[in-house]
């Protein structure tokens, strides 16, 4: 008797499933109906609209966060874990950001950093130094924690809008942790490359990950978002000139993890308070050199030269 390949496969599977009095099944778990996740469906256009609604509607951000930096990795041979720092963070479009970090309990300023999209400024009182450098030129330090720049947080907090002229593809990604949609934004030019990948959890269609890529596919940043919760207060509350709320934006992620593999550091942020679209005076983004602090130029020939 000759069996075709299809019949042979079916015969083998039947023998495995019914042989040995059913002992071929190593484990059998029945998931309670209430715990069975439901994967929501969405089209490419619906996901684009949901993402852009947040990107367009969020003009300013005022947040209190707990920061936990980690510098280095197994690839660099050394991993330094730092104590948590309480920070006050302001951000405004198009590119303004300011973050002041304070030591727990005593409230002493650990760092004060700001960026206007062109120049970053970092004050480190404990070292009596004031760092200044161009945003476009990032020079890696031998100490990874010194690679942390205020502009690194900007795209994680105020998302860049996906423009109509940008090419965007949609795919699914499924594993044992969940089911996701992934929007891939492409960079045009002589050679098409991936610019950004935006991950949506199909359980609630919230953004849970955003990866940004540089030339030749280098992973510039990998940001994770979790624990989306309602905003703490309506935008514009307790201000002299109230601003309209962020239409359609009612929640914000309370856990944000930023990984910068080429800068060799990670930053975990627990958002304890957040308000969107408050009016933020321009002077709150200004960071001046403290009296007596050493001025250090980062990214040019004058670096490390006192002024």
Describe the protein.
By secondary structure, the chain is mainly beta. The chain has three helices and 15 strands. It has a 15-stranded mixed beta sheet that branches. Strand 4 and strand 5 form a beta hairpin.
Task: Give a topology summary.
Elements: H1 5-18, H2 44-57, E1 60-73, E2 78-81, E3 85-92, E4 96-102, E5 109-115, E6 119-124, E7 129-134, H3 151-157, E8 168-175, E9 178-187, E10 193-201, E11 206-213, E12 219-230, E13 251-260, E14 265-276, E15 294-297
Parallel strand pairs: 7-15
Antiparallel strand pairs: 1-2, 1-3, 1-14, 3-4, 4-5, 5-6, 6-7, 8-9, 9-10, 10-11, 11-12, 12-13, 13-14
Number of strands: 15
Could you describe the largest sheet, including whether it forms a barrel?
15 strands, mixed
**CATH secondary-structure class:** Mainly Beta
What is the helix fraction of residues, given as a range?
A: 10-25%
Gyration radius, in Å: 25 Å
Number of helical segments?
3
CATH-defined architecture: Clam
Poorly predicted regions are 234-245, 301-307
The share of residues in extended strands comes to 35-45%
Elements, N to C (H/E): HHEEEEEEEHEEEEEEEE
Shape: globular
Q: Write the CATH homologous superfamily.
A: Lipoprotein localisation LolA/LolB/LppX
Distance N terminus to C terminus?
93 Å
Mean pLDDT score, rounded? 84
- How does the helix and strand content classify structurally? mainly beta
The total number of structural domains is 1
CATH fold category name: outer membrane lipoprotein receptor (LolB), chain A
């Amino acid at each position: 008797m000759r069996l075709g390949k299809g019949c042979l496969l079916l015969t083998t599977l039947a023998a495995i499933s019914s042989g040995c009095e059913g002992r071929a099944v190593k484990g059998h778990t029945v998931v309670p109906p209430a715990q069975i996740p439901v994967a929501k469906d969405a089209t490419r256009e619906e996901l684009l609209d949901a993402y852009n609604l947040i990107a367009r509607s969020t003009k300013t951000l005022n947040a209190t966060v707990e920061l936990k930096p980690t510098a280095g990795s197994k690839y660099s041979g050394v991993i330094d874990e730092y104590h948590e720092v309480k920070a006050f963070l302001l951000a405004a479009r198009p590119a303004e950001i300011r973050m002041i970090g304070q030591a727990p309990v005593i409230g002493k300023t650990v760092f004060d950093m700001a960026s206007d999209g062109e120049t970053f400024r970092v004050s480190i009182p404990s070292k009596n130094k004031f760092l200044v450098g161009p945003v476009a030129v990032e020079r890696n330090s031998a100490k990874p924690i010194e690679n942390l720049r205020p502009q690194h947080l900007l795209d994680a907090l105020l998302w860049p809008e996906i423009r109509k002229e940008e090419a965007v593809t949609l795919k699914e990604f499924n594993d044992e942790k969940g089911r996701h949609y992934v929007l891939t934004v492409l960079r045009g030019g002589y050679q098409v490359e991936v610019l950004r990948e935006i991950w949506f959890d199909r359980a609630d269609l919230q953004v849970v990950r955003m990866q940004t890529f540089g030339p030749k596919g280098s992973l510039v940043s990998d940001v994770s978002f979790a624990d989306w919760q309602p905003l703490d207060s309506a935008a514009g509350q307790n201000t002299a000139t109230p601003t309209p709320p962020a239409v359609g934006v009612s929640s914000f992620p309370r856990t944000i993890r930023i990984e910068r593999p080429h800068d060799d550091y990670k930053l975990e942020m627990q958002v304890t308070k957040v308000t969107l679209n408050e009016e933020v005076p321009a002077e709150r983004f200004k960071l001046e050199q403290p009296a007596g602090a050493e001025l250090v130029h980062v990214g040019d020939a004058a670096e490390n030269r006192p002024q």
